[in-house]
């Protein structure tokens, strides 16, 4: 039997792409998720048992016989780091040898973007384990730039004139496959970014061009940002994540541009213009 690569979050935008690409290349792949019924059926892929990161026993069973685990980070929550730690422990107990983790650009214990701190703590836990590992530190998603604009055509947030090197899901998936099927990536950390870093004003200009209506970026102060998001009734830790994502752009923490996509995926990374041209549904909410 060939070595099996298990892909978590296989019903999502990164995990699903990675699983499909691996199967297309003849790799034995096991798709994992909390609800197996939601997982895509891929020729050459198998569906694993239900497994959530916080359920160590279920994760261990899902990883049985797996040599490499592709670990997509869990949905943001106050207990996300603990969930990641449980999943890592389960992988070790199941005999997994190698883990490729989807982290975040600029992950550090004092990152401005509060959710990026979770990624740093997860990375540290993985480093201390017996697993061979690779970290893919993704920048913001290109589709998120389009979704930042409300139906009124305004992007609001405390990002100032900072820049963000946003990247496409397809480029992340292609880079991940390059790592999963390649050699020489143990203990490596790769920044996975777009080819340029743009301001939110520049993003608004591109959205204007494609949507055929004015889209603008309206800077907010920190107080204004918290106030404008209070209407959603979200918990304080979640609102802090939303606001600090913009503040991380303002601070320059998300402006780094790397050549990891062309090196790992073998093709250039998409620009925001490339993405909008290929994905008109991403700005459909802005069309007049």
Automatic annotation (TrEMBL):
<feature type="domain" description="NAD(P)-binding">
    <location>
        <begin position="9"/>
        <end position="180"/>
    </location>
</feature>
<dbReference type="InterPro" id="IPR051604">
    <property type="entry name" value="Ergot_Alk_Oxidoreductase"/>
</dbReference>
<dbReference type="InterPro" id="IPR016040">
    <property type="entry name" value="NAD(P)-bd_dom"/>
</dbReference>
<dbReference type="InterPro" id="IPR036291">
    <property type="entry name" value="NAD(P)-bd_dom_sf"/>
</dbReference>
<dbReference type="Pfam" id="PF13460">
    <property type="entry name" value="NAD_binding_10"/>
</dbReference>
<protein>
    <submittedName>
        <fullName>SDR family oxidoreductase</fullName>
    </submittedName>
</protein>
């Amino acid at each position: 039997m060939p070595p099996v690569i298990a892909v978590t979050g296989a019903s999502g935008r990164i995990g699903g792409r990675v699983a499909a690409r691996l199967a297309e290349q003849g790799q034995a792949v096991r798709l994992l998720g909390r609800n197996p019924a939601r997982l895509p059926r891929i020729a050459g892929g198998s569906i694993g048992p239900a497994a959530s990161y916080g359920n160590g026993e279920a994760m261990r069973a899902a990883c049985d016989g797996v040599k490499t685990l592709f670990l997509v980070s869990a949905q943001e929550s106050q207990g996300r780091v603990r969930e990641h730690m449980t999943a890592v422990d389960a992988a070790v107990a199941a005999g997994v040898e190698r883990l490729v983790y989807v982290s975040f650009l600029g992950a550090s214990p004092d990152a401005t973007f509060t959710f990026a701190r979770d990624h740093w703590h997860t990375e540290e836990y993985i480093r201390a384990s017996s697993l061979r590992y690779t970290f893919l530190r993704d920048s913001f998603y290109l589709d998120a730039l389009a979704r930042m604009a409300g139906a009124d055509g305004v992007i609001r947030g405390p990002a100032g004139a900072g820049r963000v090197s946003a990247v496409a899901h397809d480029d992340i998936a292609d880079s991940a496959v390059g790592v999963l099927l390649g050699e020489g990536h143990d203990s490596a950390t790769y920044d996975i970014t777009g080819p340029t870093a743009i301001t939110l004003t520049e993003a608004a200009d591109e959205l204007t061009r494609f949507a055929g209506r004015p889209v603008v970026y309206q800077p907010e102060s920190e107080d204004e940002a918290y106030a404008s998001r209070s209407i959603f009734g979200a918990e304080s830790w979640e609102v802090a994540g939303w606001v600090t994502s913009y503040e991380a752009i303002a601070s320059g923490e998300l402006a780094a541009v790397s050549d990891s996509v062309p090196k790992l995926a073998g093709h250039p990374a998409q620009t925001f213009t490339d993405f909008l041209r290929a994905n008109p549904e991403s700005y459909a909410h802005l069309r007049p």
